[in-house]
Each structure stands twice: as C-alpha cells, then as structure tokens.
Specification:
By secondary structure, the chain is α/β, with parallel strands linked by helices. The chain has a single domain (28-198), classed as Vaccinia Virus protein VP39 (Rossmann fold), CATH 3.40.50. 30% of the residues lie in helices and 24% in strands. It contains 6 helices and 7 strands; from the N terminus they run ααβαβαββαβαββ. It has helices spanning 3-17, 30-36, 56-63, 78-87, 126-139, 159-165, and strands spanning 46-50, 71-75, 92-95, 112-117, 140-150, 167-175, 182-189. Helix 2 (30-36) packs across helix 3 (56-63).
Length: 200
C-alpha cells in the first residue's frame, strides 16, 4: 500500500468514526495546502495547527520555512496523533479537543504567529466554535492570524459571532484544483476604534 493510499484510508476510517471531527473523507490536496500557508513563513514563528490529520498542511508549513520545532500539532484522533509523532518528531503533538485550546500551556517567550485550522467549523455548534477561537486568540500575538478553509460559498464563521469576539474575516483566495474546491479565510483581531479624543 502506497503512502498516499494509506493516508486516504486512515482519513476515511477517521471520518466514519467521527464525522463531526474530521472535515473531509480525504486529505486536503496540494493546492489547498499551498493556499492555506501562503501568508506564513519562517518569520511567523510558532504555528499551532488544529486538526492536522495526516499532516498535509504540516508538510506545507515546513515547505514555507517554519521550523519543525516551532509547530504545535493539536489533534483529537489518536490514530492521527500517533502518526504525526512519527512523521514530525521535532514538533509538539498534543492529543486533545481543540475546544480546550485555552488550557494549553505554551512557552511565554514563543508567541504564536498563526493558527492553521483544518477543523469542520460549519458542522460544530456555535459554543464550540467560540471556544476554539477564544483559545486560539489567547495564544496568538497581537498581529497573529487564524486561517480556516471551507468548502462553502462564504466564511464558515458567521458575522454575528465574529462581531461578538471582536474579530474580522478576510478572504484569502479559492482553489478549484482541490476536490472539492475550497476557499481560505484569514481571521484576525479588529483594530480598536479610536475615540473622539484620540482623533488629531
């Protein structure tokens, strides 16, 4: 069995056992991986990846110059977590629900520059999405960003939820080469509004 077939088989079995935890029945393609990581580089510093699965985005992050030891891989599935530890031994692999991300202890001197999410946010209840975003932005530095892909026609995080959390979503791009076609959004903090007294 080739590596690609083995990965697809593992992904499909994981999807069958937990369809709400796995975004797709197959791993993401190279075009989507490139789009998801297009704004990330060695200068980004520490990157948290949520739901890395078989490590397709992880490999793309390494290709962008992110050091393996600067990767924090948060994976719920035990089979995926074991495989990730073998494939990326210098990365920190943590088996946990991303909704508990706020409890994750990280080194204070290594602020997180980006969170890359492969989670199926559209299939999750709003309270869980809020917990995931709260956790992500508790670790992200001020100008850090949360990257999310979707197979849908618009951002998978509703505008009222973004407003509630003081966040904004920016369309990064879409790839038709992925099966199915997918779009990527960057979620970041909104700039604080200036008061009348601050206006010069």
């Amino acid at each position: 069995m080739t590596s690609r077939i083995a990965e697809a088989s593992l992904f499909f079995r994981a999807w069958l056992s937990a369809p709400l935890q796995v975004a797709s029945i197959t791993p993401s393609g190279r075009a989507l991986s490139a789009l998801m990581t297009t704004e990330i580089s060695q200068e980004t510093g520490t990157v948290i990846e949520l739901g890395p699965g078989t490590g397709v985005f992880t490999t793309a992050l390494l290709g962008r110059g992110v050091a393996e030891e600067n990767l924090v891989l948060v994976e719920y599935g035990s089979d995926f977590a074991v495989q990730l530890e073998v494939r990326f031994p210098k990365a920190r692999t943590i088996q946990m629900d991303a909704a508990h991300l706020i409890t994750l202890a990280l080194q204070p001197h290594t602020p997180v520059g980006a969170v890359v999410s492969g989670l199926p946010l559209l299939s999750m209840p709003a309270r869980k999405v809020i917990a995931i975003l709260d956790g992500a932005f508790s670790h992200l530095r001020q100008n850090g960003a949360f990257y999310q892909f979707t197979y849908g026609p618009r951002c998978p995080i509703p505008r009222p939820l973004l407003d509630r959390l003081g966040l904004k979503a920016t369309y990064v791009g879409r790839t038709l080469a992925n099966v199915p076609p997918a779009a990527v959004y960057r979620v970041s903090r909104r700039a604080p509004r200036r008061t009348v007294h601050e206006v010069t």
